[in-house]
Every structure is written in structure tokens, then in C-alpha cells.
Amino acid sequence: MAALIQCVQPIFDALSCPGIPFKLRWCLLALAPINVLSYSIKWLPWIFSRSYSVIRIPLHRSPRQSSRALVFAPKSPSSSLRPLHIHIHGGAFIGGIPELDNNFCARMVEETGAVVVSISYRLAPRYPFPTAHHDAQDAAAYIVKNAERLWGANPKVLTLSGCSVGANLALGISQSLSDTETPVKGALLIDNPVDLRIPPWEKPKPPGFPSHDPLSFLAPLFDAYAESARSRRHEDPLLNPTLADARTLPRKMLFLIAGADILHHEVTSFVERLQKESVVLNSQNTGAADSTGSYKIESMVFDGQLHGWLDLPSFIIDESLRTRARNAAYGFMRDVQAENGWHRVE
């Protein structure tokens, strides 16, 4: 039901939500059929699945609101607390539901033995920055606080993942937890925007980028979340993780980067900066290179692939590339968990 409601949400916002500029209203109407198609492809195969449970998470900064989340838990019992993993879906801040990444989350449980919680957040243009970031941070705080009691998961072995803007939100969660007893141990970041100071149409196009983008007419809508905050929060590392202090981010990170994505330049520049800083930070900590406290920033660039390529049908992309990317992702998570005391034995 939630997926159906989300399909028509752009239409409702376009017709009835005050304060949305006209230039965005018609874009929202155009977005609706795209949502119906993408949500149906991803959600319908899971409509009768019992692979996950649905929960509502209270939002600390919005007392009258709650967010919806899916919990994927291993079926077999464990004698010790399992790792905790939080996943955040993409959708340009204007769409998406947790069910879009069900395959990824279910596989994460199988590959690592972790409890996976896939969260949601309110969407632009009705809710511009910092709503989605605050929703994600509030949801993460609730999950961390209740993980052991509700699911037998260990918040001290916390990892994150996110696709597209979900990865941006994951870095925001890390910033909010960096000074707590449960900092993020590792993060998988897929095709993520890290510099929202630059609107979509000004981002440099890499080699292989299509000469005509069929979704270019939605560009103003893609910018709706950040536009209102760009001048006021220009140097805000929450909105623009490329400006974040490396010490507020996960110490272990793997970036999966599409080579023909307009985000390619900013993400690779971000990775290069973090890798240089990690060398300095590790040198300041004696023995850090062999400890769980060391910094390790990795990236994989998939040449010729477009933004969101991992979700495309097999007949469009090289399936071996997708297998390589996913195997690297799950292997990375297993390594982070093992460094923090969890070894899957099932």
C-alpha cells in the first residue's frame, strides 16, 4: 500500500501543496508515470514476500511524524549479537521507497549475517533540505538505540550503505554519530552526490555521457531539495559531504562509481582527498594501519556505466560487471564486520 501511495504522491503535491513553484508542478506530474513503472518493477515481486517486516520509526525533530522502514533479519538464531546495517534508498530526494532495494538488502543479510534496516525519508520539493537528512539521522538514532532490544543487533558494529542520494544521507548519518559511543564502522557508497553546491546542469559531463539525456526536463526537480539552501548553507558539510572533516565520516569506505555519471568528477575528487587525509590520520595513530581504528578509503570505477546502472535490466548492461560490483560490496562489509569482532559462521 505504501508503494501505491508513493506512486501518486507527486500528483497530490503538484495539485495541492502550497509553495511549490509552477516550474516544478508540471515536473511532478511528469514524474508520476515514471514512478509507477519503476516502483512496479521493483516492488511487485516482493508483494507477498515475508523476507522483511515493516516498522514505523518516530522522528525526534518532527514529533507528529514517523518514517517507514523495512527490517531484514536472519532466520537462524545466533549466540551473539549480530552486526547492524542501515541502508538508504536513492531517488534524487524526490522519489523512491525502501522496497526499491529489497534484493540488495536481502542479499546483505545472506552474505553477512547482519540485521539490515532499510529506511525512508520525506521528499522534495514539498520537504527541502534539511528534512531528508534530519529524517535519516533521527531514524538512525532510533535504530541504534533499540537495535539490541528489538533485533539482537549490535549497534557498536554499525555499517551503512546508500544508493545515489541515499549515500549522501548515509554520510550525514555518520556525521551525526561520529562523536557518540556508536560511530559508523564502514560504509558502502554507490553513485553518490557529494557536492550539491553545483546544480545538475552545471556538473561536468564525463566521457561516455549521453549526448541527450532523456530526463533532462526533470533537472529543475532534481535540484529542488538543495536549491533553497544553496546560498544559505553553501559550506554546510551535511548537504555537501565533500566539505566534511574526514574524522566525522566512516573510517572504512568503499565507493562504487559509474564512469559515465555526471557525479563522476566530484566523487573521484572526494575520494582522492579522503585517501590523502587518511594517510595523515593513520600516521598520527601508532599501529593504526593494522587496527579497527585505521582509515581505509577504496573505490571502484566502472567505465561507461550510467548513474543507477546497478539497477538496470541484465539485457542492458554487462551482468559480469554487476556481479563484480556486488561481490566487492558484500566482501567489503564482511571485512569491516570481521575487523570489529563479527565472523559469520552460518
From TrEMBL:
It holds the Pfam family Abhydrolase_3. Keywords: Hydrolase. Gene3D superfamilies: alpha/beta hydrolase. SUPFAM superfamilies: alpha/beta-Hydrolases (SSF53474). InterPro entries: AB_hydrolase_3, AB_hydrolase_fold, GDXG_lipolytic_enzyme. Coiled coil: none annotated. Residues 86-282 form the Alpha/beta hydrolase fold-3 domain. Transmembrane segments: none annotated. GO terms for molecular function: hydrolase activity. PANTHER family: AB HYDROLASE SUPERFAMILY PROTEIN C4A8.06C. This is Alpha/beta hydrolase fold-3 domain-containing protein.
